[in-house]
Amino acid sequence: MLPRDRRRNRHVTPRKLNMMNQITLNDLLAQETKRDPIAFSARLREQGAVLPFYGLGKERGWLVTQYDDVLTILKDPRFIKDPQKLTPSLQGEQAEADERAAVMSNLLKYRRDMLVTDPPDHTRLRGLVSKAFTPRMIEHLRPRIQQLADELLDAVQKQGQMDLIADFAFPLPITVISEMLGISGADRQQFRTWSQTLVTGVVGSEPTKVVAAMEAFVQYIKTLLAEKRAHPGTDLTSGLVQAEERGDRLSEAELISTIFLLIVAGHETTVNLLGNGMLALFEHPEQMRRLCTDPSLIPSAIEELLRYTAPVSMSSPRWASEDIPLHDQVIRKGEMVFVSLIGADTDPRQFSDPEVLDIARQENQHVAFGKGIHFCLGAPLARLEGQIAIGTLLRRLPRLRLACEPEQLTWTQSPILRGLTSLPVTF
Known about the structure:
This protein is α+β, with helices and mostly antiparallel strands. The protein contains 20 helices and 11 strands. The strands form 3 sheets. A 6-stranded mixed beta sheet has the order 1-2-3-9-6-4.
């Protein structure tokens, strides 16, 4: 059991980087990096604002670590999300670089959604989905989300213990997004298996499993779409099918990819917010007590947990569409660029005492949901789920405690997402 007065050690130095001013995928995936991304990000900022990054294959990419630069790149249309716009020779070099790059290329061929497209396609695709994610529409989900949170805790209340990820943080958001999409509850655990394979697969040792998972996922969505065409309902999937049939320029590939994105993004990031957020509160018991005493702090607490715990630690890749100077570097046309969201959100130039968890923090213009045209469409839903889920946990389980030492926890192997594989608790 973690002592109540245990504090997270913010002075632990992450393992030494492989080379001065050069970051690799292994640096981002290291368990010590995942455990303490704030210390790791501080080390990166010390080494430079724009760092060479060798992630997939032999081609050099770039990692940007400072708040102002992150905002610039997220808003600059010269950094594009669709690598198909680059010359075939550049794409060929990247795709053939090694097995990891080949897997990435294989996955990208299935993707044609708003996350991997640029205007005007991005504008069109986002417009077709955005009506379901307005703050007003999401607020209508409040009673159902509260009901789900209570039902999940009812199921474990007598046990006195649970895995907070498997028993609560996962089933809540996957049920919400599945119901929005009109998907059967029996299939939701399969989504978790596919999703975990895909978000960690590029760094895994069995690329064939990654491609197989993607193909199975796509086939499932095709079957779902056929059912909605035959028997449409009031759900979001039916709405997208009907939009396609009205001639709203939604191709079959775009329809499949959009449903895929909504399923994966609709639960993975919220699972991480709930798991990472509760771990941070366990490690800062004075903040947890303050939140229990004053539940009106829940909204600001969720914003601070988004900033501090990095459910999405790094952006999905962008590519330079032309040579772009940045600080003392030139990002060449075709080079891949990642921005460190946790780096930006713990930049002392932007946040006072960024290494401190303060659930009442007032000035908190974090970039956990991104910025610019790719700002997370599901931000209102994630915020509401986080507020209800964490608020319900603290209200209903006042003796909630971590059931192991934090050092015993393991983190998923994704360079983009930061999440726990499990979080055992007692109450």
